[in-house]
Amino acid sequence: MDNSRIYLSIGVQSGFEKEYISKALEDNRITSGGPNVDNFESELQGYLGENLFVAALNSGTSAIHLALILLGVKKDDEVICQTMTFSASANPILYQGAIPVFVDSEKETWNICPENLEIAIKDRIKKGKKPKAIIAVHLYGMPYKVDEIHAIADKYEIPIVEDSAEALGSCYKGKKCGSFGAIGILSFNGNKIITTSSGGALISNSKEIKDKAIFYATQSKDKAVHYQHSEIGYNYRMSNICAGIGIGQMKILKNNIGSRRNNHLFYKELFGKIQNVEFFDNLNEDYFSNYWLNTILLESEEQRENLRIAFDNANIESRPLWKPMHLQPFFEKYPYYGSNIAEELFKKGLCLPSGSNLKNEDKIRIKEVVELLF
Ligand SMILES: *Cc1c(COP(=O)(O)O)cnc(C)c1O
């Protein structure tokens, strides 16, 4: 039997990527921005909702950074961020010289907890500063509690940056993730559900915001014949070559979501039979996850490590859940609101191989490891 490495999540190709890259090369459009970029943006707009405006950028991280800039986040401002996330959600707060304030997860979607969010907002206001923005994340593709979180944000008039890096194709009440925030962001990094090798996008419902994002992303050039700048600029635009990959990838987005959801059904059946494993599933029919990654909770950290090592010995990649930001050496000095929900998830949780190209043979190998251990 083939014993090659089974990965957590790697890209698959539609075969059309080459066509769009070749066209860019033939036309000598080896540029940042360009026709592939415009077309990729239109396709994303068509997919997410025609009333939206999408700016294609060179990473999800730069999209979050520009989102904060567009929302007016400046030095010493405070920005609330879900603690249970990947560091790229929080780093751009520091790029602005602002202060991250971390909030715990709730147990049902593992995303930002409404109660603790409101406690945090009230306490920060009491201490003298109203947070400038809230970064909420659809972690592993699972939508956060959109209605509850947005109701609180609206009540205190704080805009939400919706980190949808892992959730392209996920929906809440039938509406696509990425479309809920004052600004939404996507990532097309190599491990995401579609990839442009590196890339990201900023989503808003205003053409003005899109245009301003592109202005900042292309060095903030004023209208003049010479290079004239009245604002700080960034080199964050997507390359025309990468966008060619993106157009090719859009052709298999639906298939990828289908494959990931099939992986989900496979794991649901496999772990459904095992008593001491809790399988992470949609909360109810309002939630539609793309199941970018499938995840489980074991009874203890020790059990989690036993399974992870057993997988590794069989050349199968798995990984503990993302370590919460408030526990990271680099971020632990910043304020945190909550108890130990995210911490417990981190201790007991494991991400399972969930690639769009997971084959039947791979599933047999995964099943063997699990059945041997439990
Ligand atoms: C991948 C990811 C990002 C960053 O995207 P890049 O394109 O890698 O810069 C941000 N937030 C989350 C939750 C992610 O998983």
UniProtKB/TrEMBL annotation:
<dbReference type="GO" id="GO:0000271">
    <property type="term" value="P:polysaccharide biosynthetic process"/>
</dbReference>
<keyword id="KW-0032">Aminotransferase</keyword>
<dbReference type="InterPro" id="IPR000653">
    <property type="entry name" value="DegT/StrS_aminotransferase"/>
</dbReference>
<feature type="active site" description="Proton acceptor">
    <location>
        <position position="192"/>
    </location>
</feature>
<protein>
    <submittedName>
        <fullName>Aminotransferase class I/II-fold pyridoxal phosphate-dependent enzyme</fullName>
    </submittedName>
</protein>
<keyword id="KW-0663">Pyridoxal phosphate</keyword>
<dbReference type="InterPro" id="IPR015424">
    <property type="entry name" value="PyrdxlP-dep_Trfase"/>
</dbReference>
<dbReference type="Pfam" id="PF01041">
    <property type="entry name" value="DegT_DnrJ_EryC1"/>
</dbReference>
<comment type="similarity">
    <text>Belongs to the DegT/DnrJ/EryC1 family.</text>
</comment>
<dbReference type="GO" id="GO:0030170">
    <property type="term" value="F:pyridoxal phosphate binding"/>
</dbReference>
<keyword id="KW-0808">Transferase</keyword>
<dbReference type="InterPro" id="IPR015421">
    <property type="entry name" value="PyrdxlP-dep_Trfase_major"/>
</dbReference>
<dbReference type="InterPro" id="IPR015422">
    <property type="entry name" value="PyrdxlP-dep_Trfase_small"/>
</dbReference>
<dbReference type="GO" id="GO:0008483">
    <property type="term" value="F:transaminase activity"/>
</dbReference>
<feature type="modified residue" description="N6-(pyridoxal phosphate)lysine">
    <location>
        <position position="192"/>
    </location>
</feature>
